[in-house]
Prior knowledge:
The protein is built from seven helices and 15 strands. The protein is an alpha/beta fold. The strands form four sheets. Strands 2-1-3-4-5 form a five-stranded parallel β-sheet. A five-stranded antiparallel β-sheet has the order 10-9-8-12-11, sandwiched between helices. α1 packs across α5.
Amino acid sequence: MLRIAVVDDEVDFIAMYNRMITDIFSEHHVLIELKTFSSGNNFIKSLSKTEYDLVFMDIDMPELSGIDIASQLRKNNQNSDLIFVSAHPHFVFEAIRYTPYRFIRKTNLKEETIEAINSYCNRTQMKFKMISLELQNGDMINEKVNDIVTFFSVRHDVYYVNSGESEAKILSRKYSLSQLERFTKELGFIRVHKSYLVNYRYIKNINAKSLFISDDSEIPISHGKKTEIQEQFMRLLRNEDLT
């Protein structure tokens, strides 16, 4: 279940927007728990008891603006996704530093809210998407796509690394890296070297001969493939359904 908050000082708008958001998520068969706040201060107080997955938030509010609230959320390491909803498009330049998921204009409210929630649901489904893998000992294991950092080969054996585990697991010999490349391409994996497939979500930096992933490990890249890898990486970053 997604925990969602709507923060806006206009009570009538909150009631209407609550219904709209609930209806759109219902169309995706996504269960939500939605709370509304007509005061930024009341929303901040609620954070001591609840951490929200997604916050729809006006910017121009008395007491605490949406920008003030976003600043507090980030300072407190709250990882809520933020969607700013405003009648003032110029606020987007202030809002962007808090990496919002979307900026919705109240003048185009329904269309942009539908697009934002459609994209968010697709992203959430990918976040929990599972793949089944057979280990060398014959056991089948289900892993979240987002938890797999790399697949790599050593001679004829293929391994994979899970972000939450210290040791790589060895896969059945029925797998080759080329087969895994075809299977995982649409899941966000990039063939950076003949021996490595890397989940783009973990890439931090790409240089001429190697790339660095989020734990600061260095992975070699094939000669002359830097530009191609960078282009694939950027395409994946732009694809909202995979982020």
